[in-house]
Amino acid sequence: MARRLGVILLVMALFVLAYFSGNYAIAAAIEPMRKEGLIIGSERDWRFYAGLLKTLPGYIGVAVSFLWGVLADKAGRPRVLLLLGALMGVSMMLVSAATSYLFLLAAFTAFGIGYVGVSPVIYAFVSDVTPSERRGLGYAAYYVPTVLGFIVGVVVAGVLLYWRTAYLAFGVLTLVFAALLYALSRGTRPGGQEAGAVLAEYRLREALSSLLRSRTVTIMVLQILPWAIPWGFITFFAVDYLVSRWGISKAAASLVLAVAALSIAVGHVLGGLLADRRVRRGDALGRFRVSVLGIAVGYVAMAAMLAYPYPYGDTSAGALLGPTLLAAAGLMFTTFAYPNINSVISDCVPPHHRGTVFAVYNILNAVGWATGPALYGALVARLAASTPLRTAMLYAALLVESMWLISLAAWLITARYYPEERLAPAQGALGQP
């Protein structure tokens, strides 16, 4: 029933919001942690130890995330979501009770193992409970709280609550929503949304071969690497870019990016809903048309924002309005593709292999996000040797953003194969009237 699907997606979104808020809360908690003596080091090197609280858990989380995808295929997605939700919830509660740096690092490492590993499980879970023609909405229900989690985490831990109280609250909420999601989704099974799905015994070799048997899956999984690289650059260096290129304050730059961040959340919803509507109307390539349009428009708008002839140092509303609208439009339209990437992959992968395939996808996605800042920094350093710094920053940003054109080409190529490679949807599946 559509009502049951809506409740499951709502609880899933709240679950994601809770643990993403806990992930981002560290941005607001670093300073008080340092003042309370939890983060060790001198004035010269304490930032290294602070950064390790994110870097080490991230690396370890990526290293073991493949195992969670495999386990989700073998043991069932609801069970693994409950396990990872419990791991994240308890670890955030331990963060709130930390009494030393090593205690804090261990708690964040446990959280990172769950935080990085849960994504491919959720990607597969969405396909278990959502029919093909509604998966854009299903994946948007995951992606929107990943964006809003930054705002909630920073505001709650930095403004509304003491950081320990905030982590305790996020930990408890993660546990509650994980348990509720498990209770609501018990009985769902891989393949429940595909007609005649046969769930054979899981074999890792066969699951990995699903990456290569479908040209649609192979191309869409590989394109996530160039797709993610510009996102990694934008989220890491956007404030510095605006401050250095435009000569505005960090506060003004943060305001521009806050508007852009909200537009990303809108883009997830619009991209998913528009594609779902076209699919329900019988357009087999609806997700491709929406995604290609979004990337093309978004690329042009973002390039215009990066190259905008901004009056250096002017922080008036009139000067900020134009480039802010370009940034919002660029990120909103580009985001149209995100929920549809997952939808297309899930449409072409056997249900009992999706956790494994999405685990590989998740690893490449993480590598892309991590590569973006380093690639941009290297390009700036290289170009600045022969051009002014502000010009070097512009050229480097445009080159990194152009990685989206590889993804655009991937969508256009894959449209040839998808109609014949997608699985047949089930009739009367969960979520259908």
Explain the overall architecture.
With 433 residues, the protein is mostly helical. Helices cover 79% and strands 0% of the residues. The chain has 18 helices and no strands. It has helices spanning 2-24, 26-35, 46-75, 77-96, 101-129, 135-160, 163-185, 204-213, 215-222, 224-246, 250-280, 286-306, 317-335, 337-348, 354-383, 389-401, 403-414, 418-421. Helix 1 (2-24) packs antiparallel against helix 7, helix 3 packs parallel to helix 5 (101-129) and helix 10 packs antiparallel against helix 11. The longest helix is centred in the middle third of the chain and has 31 residues, at 250-280. It starts with a helix and ends in a 12-residue tail after the last helix. Mean pLDDT is 89; it is low at 426-433.
Summed over residues and divided by their number, the pLDDT gives a mean of 89
Give the SSE order as H and E letters.
HHHHHHHHHHHHHHHHHH
Oligomer: single chain
Shape: globular
Portion in beta strands: under 5%
First CA to last CA: what distance? 6 Å
Strand segment tally: 0
Largest sheet: number of strands, sense, barrel closure? none
Helix percentage: over 70%
SS class: mainly alpha
Radius of gyration, in Å, reads 22 Å
Count of discrete alpha- or pi-helical segments spanning 4 or more residues: 18
Key attributes of the depicted protein:
433 residues, 18 helices, 79% helix
Short description:
This protein has 433 residues and is mainly α.
SSE diagram, text form:
Elements: H1 2-24, H2 26-35, H3 46-75, H4 77-96, H5 101-129, H6 135-160, H7 163-185, H8 204-213, H9 215-222, H10 224-246, H11 250-280, H12 286-306, H13 317-335, H14 337-348, H15 354-383, H16 389-401, H17 403-414, H18 418-421
Helix pairs in contact: 1-5, 1-6, 1-7, 2-6, 3-4, 3-5, 3-15, 4-5, 4-7, 5-6, 5-15, 6-7, 6-11, 6-14, 8-9, 9-14, 9-17, 10-11, 10-15, 10-16, 10-17, 11-12, 11-13, 11-14, 12-13, 12-14, 12-16, 12-17, 15-16
